[in-house]
Amino acid sequence: MQRPDIAIIGGGLVGASLALALQAGAKARGWRILLVEPFAPGDTYQPSYDARSSALSYGSRLIYQRLGVWEALAEHAEAIQEIQVSDQGRFGVTQLLARDENLPALGYVVENAWIGQVLWQALDREVVDWRCPAEVRTLTAIPDGYRLELDDGDVLECGLAVLADGGRSALRESLGIEVRRTVYEQTALIANVSTNLGHGGRAFERFTPHGPLALLPLPGQRSALVWTQPDAEALRLQQATDAVFLAELQQAVGYRLGSFTQVGTRHAYPLTLLEANEQVRPHLVVLGNAAHSLHPIAGQGFNLSLRDVDSLAECLLESGAAPGDFATLQDYLQRQRLDQQLTIGFSDRITRLFSNSRPWLSAGRNLGLVGLELCPPAKSAFARQAMGLGTRP
């Protein structure tokens, strides 16, 4: 193939979204985009009880609307009409309602497999070349870009390399890009659960003495569970019988959704806040979890990455320079710096505040939830941050 102008390493949700955001402008400019991804998406969408899902903020819906794929995504999206935030064993509670923000929903829960299929089907093969399944073995800086060596022996050069290959990026490490890690000493248990009552579009953020817990509405009477526990406790719960697991979950959540009746496959993920010390270099951008990986409880990680994608595409297409121009990449990072700082700080502080069982902190956050409920402007500001609109007009 001819030398691509932009090579996106990692064709997951972030990488595919970037290719989609760039393709119309790239076609007008005669740019070629290469998308390198180890795992090819399936030809058909096959719903699964255990499918992993993402919570898309309302701000992410707006981005995908501009990219022309929201109508397709919405076919299998469950709207979040209400988020109830509470502290176990205390009276403090606040409710965020879509109608209070004059919006159709606060966000949406969509299976990752469906998002991926919609994105890949929307890519224009006249602009975006796929190398899939394929993997980049080495990434080497050259004077006017980067050289990629693929696992099949092919060697390619590009003007801009975008590293979107995940939080454990070996290529990021090979380039000497250091990361800051904050180890939470917690593990997230991820599973889908069913209840005997419908969720009615309600999501729950529940803070327990051991760590935060979230339930997000899925189609039918299912919810996606993210349950944060100390590492040893998470391992015990992962290995527990379904009956024991559901009984302890019921005790932590209560009966807001009735009785829990089924739990799917449980996955455990040790939790670490990761931030790359460098997100741009000449001819290089680090994106997605390779740039910043957040605690999942506030549902901010992918939505922040999608806003990064939107801003990067805007900067590249507005600039008169070739992809890889360092000034353009610095402009992108400057535009996103405040959003990243606020979102990462928001997620980290919520995690720390609601994972601490000290009595004075527990009393303070309980009063904070009450105060939030009694102060509509503060609650609206909180809701806008949660919806990915905190730094956007």
From TrEMBL:
Keywords: FAD, Flavoprotein, Monooxygenase, Oxidoreductase. The keyword Zinc does not apply. GO terms for molecular function: oxidoreductase activity. Pathway: Cofactor biosynthesis; ubiquinone biosynthesis. Its EC number is 1.14.13.-. The keyword Flavoprotein applies. Residues 5-332 form the FAD-binding domain. It holds the Pfam family FAD_binding_3. InterPro entries: FAD-bd, FAD/NAD-bd_sf, UbiH, UbiH/COQ6, UbiH/COQ6_monooxygenase. It comes from the Bacteria. Its cofactor is FAD. PANTHER family: 2-OCTAPRENYL-6-METHOXYPHENOL HYDROXYLASE, UBIQUINONE BIOSYNTHESIS MONOOXYGENASE COQ6, MITOCHONDRIAL. Belongs to the UbiH/COQ6 family. This is 2-octaprenyl-6-methoxyphenyl hydroxylase. The lineage of its organism: Bacteria, Pseudomonadati, Pseudomonadota, Gammaproteobacteria, Pseudomonadales.
